[in-house]
Request: fold
Amino acid sequence: MIGYYVHHQGRGHLHRARCVAHRTRTPLTGLSSLPRPADWPGEWIPLPLDTGPVTDGPAGTATADPTAHGRLHWVPRHHAGLRSRMAAVADWIDRTAPALLVSDVSVEVATLARLMGVPVVVSAMRGDRSDAAHRLAYDLADALMAPWPAALPEPDWPPEWRAKTEHTGAFSRHDGRPRPEKREPGGTGPRPERSTAGREVLLMLGAGGTELTAADLRGAADATPGWNWTVLGGPGGWTEDPWPLLCRADVVVTHAGQNAVAECAAARTPAVIVPQSRPHGEQHATARALAAGGLATVRDRWPEPRDWPGLLDEALRTGGDRWGLWAPGDGAERAARLLDRLAAPEARTDPEAPTDAGVRQVSGVREDMGVQADPGVRADAGRSTAIGVRADTGADAAPTSPPGGSTTCASR
Reply:
């Protein structure tokens, strides 16, 4: 049995867990405050939230010392939700004696599992993880699972982290999914290669919150009259399946969250990446890696309206062919193989268990051989949208912050 802790902020942690859960041979149990996904293949342990005020401490007690003097991320004193949450994880470990626990992501859950004698895999994140809490989790982990390619590593990681890192490459729920066919509205014939109404931009803001304003979006759309803008997330509403929009777009504009970038890469769609401010500089670190690999057009902050025509043209020239370096298409399979191998009885007795056939070991980091970039010929559906900024209809509004939460996805 493998446990998989899924953080509840945003959607990327859950999407990644679902991809892996459908590919492991070992039974996998999810542990999360999120509702159980309809397609989850195994057990799901609901966890209480650890947010909100203290309810059971001495009279007048406020949330105190949430970082344990800087050693952890979120362990406020006298917090009933935190206590119940950790008790639920510990009870599950005690009842099932799992072979392995994956933390995506929580320093505290990773530490609890290891204190109970369970080997741990930590889903690694980019950015500066040199704080005491991250060092604890990354040091105690049996393996680090990095959803980016070994060719674009984190530059400042110590050798002992690199030696136990599995670079899976980015992976997405859309990997291997066929592109929608191009058809005329109301008919069966193919659409033209490009819509006569103009080229298509998909602005994908995601569910983890955004710094952009309606004025920012309107300025970009007004400055690019030859482009039709569709907005997902934030003021544009939400859809559970952005794949048709990703495939239809000529260019995607999005932040540098792991899941958003992975979905762009799966579609092989040219992109403009504008990182958002996140703890530990996570998105800016991802954006630097994308720029270094020549995979996308990157800007550190939201551009001025006058810059958008040139940026969209630059993205078209960059194209989407090189996305195969970031997301070869088999990242979830690589992650599942790692977990199955570490959960196997021989791995628990022999830390030097051999790696999968066809995989070579380089400085302790496994790297699959012969993965080539997808030539990624893009097929534009060509459906025109309303002039200016269009909010996709029929979708639920996206949450912009975790319920009642003051901690980030790096915290628990």
In short: DSSP finds 13 helices and 15 strands in the chain. Confidence is low (pLDDT under 50) at residues 183-196, 353-412. The first helix runs from residue 12 to 21. The two ends are 22 Å apart (CA to CA).
